[in-house]
Amino acid sequence: MTASTPGTSPLPAPVTTLGADDARRIVLRAQGLLGAPDRRGGVRGMLRRLGSVQLDTISVLARSHELVPYARLGAVGRPAVEAAYWGSGTSFEYWSHAACILPVEEWPLFAFRRRHYRAKAHVWGKQGEAATYRSVLDKLRAEGPLTSTELGGAKKTSEWWDWSDTKIAVERALAFGDVVCTERRSWKRVYALAEQAVPAELFAAEPDDAECLRTLVAQSGAALGLATRADLVDYHRLRAEQVDAVLPDSGLVPVEVAGWGPNGTPGAAWADPEALATTSRGRHRTTLLSPFDSLVWDRPRTERIFGMLHRLEAYTPKHKRVHGYFAMPVLTGGRLVGRVDPAREGRTLVARQVSLDSPRHLEALAAALREAAGWVGCDAVRVEALHEESLRPALERLLA
């Protein structure tokens, strides 16, 4: 038996010990960033593989949910990305790692969370009137999918947090599973009755909590390739005791990974058996990553695997930012080698701030910038602040 996290049962003996580089390649392959991209599966296939794509309001080059398939599939058309997510009946929006797009096949797996929300006394503000809740459902039943504005108004005042009773009611209905969001219009959620929008066989499925959690932990392990207990907890924001209860029956196998323990010692982890059995070789993607990409959204995991301490600074006061408002890690050769804080001015992609670990990655940086520019319809790249100005002539030649 091996040591375990305090407060948990001892882990079974590891089936194998992995080096840090092998572990990193397994993670990249599981996340769809090593090997030939699955162009036949496209965006929907990518979503099923990851199991969850985080949503966020920030839009610099594009919104984060667009950047995630771009990082894996290349310059897939942005309209095609939106069409794959919204209005096709193949996905829905719910609370996972955060507000996320999920494959519709995962609807039954979040029954445990819907039951949890129903059991809470307060969800999304005040309880509100039962009559308002019923009227929201009646209106959706009579008129079909609607935004909160179309339902009767999202806010009482101009303050972003001052929701109307209708907005509170429909968000509660979303949490409870009476309504579902399968579409956004101009970034507004479009609500529909779940019984009408979710395929009947999935809507009728009601697995118990243990089955939901066991399947979600297995799915998280497959999406991550290799994961510590904390990684598995974080992926769908489960509780540690929930993960502990189902791990032995999840199908994941215990391994040991060099450098994943305290102070660089070997550390205990769980692996997807298929990931262990698959050779992690192929073409490495060179790209810019959204800070909300599932490869890097867990900061301790990112530091453990890639040695990069990265955090979103959008909500940090400007004078305290180190790498910029929406600094995007640069991935190349299976490593994170720098950061770019991007913006757009007309048809120019502006790199407000660029940092690079080594001059040898300059060509990869230029390639990532050129491809990103073309994807968002820009035909020029301008670099403003460069961490090492001596690199500017060479970088500008590569960008020309």
Task: Characterise the protein shown here.
By secondary structure, this protein is an alpha+beta fold. 38% of the residues lie in helices and 18% in strands. It has 17 helices and 14 strands. It has a 5-stranded mixed beta sheet with strand order 10-11-12-13-14, with helices on both faces. β12 and β13 form a beta hairpin. α11 crosses α12, α11 packs across α13 and α16 crosses α17. The chain is globular. It starts with 16 loop residues before the first strand and ends with a helix. The mean pLDDT is 92.
Low-confidence stretches: none
What's the N-to-C terminus distance?
58 Å
- Tell how many strands the DSSP assignment holds: 14
Average pLDDT reading:
92
Content of β-strand: 15-25%
Radius of gyration: 22 Å
Give the overall silhouette. Answer: globular
The percent of residues in helical segments reads 25-40%
The biggest beta sheet is recorded as:
5 strands, mixed
Spatial strand order of the main sheet: 10-11-12-13-14
- The DSSP helix count reads 17
Structural class by helix and strand composition: alpha+beta
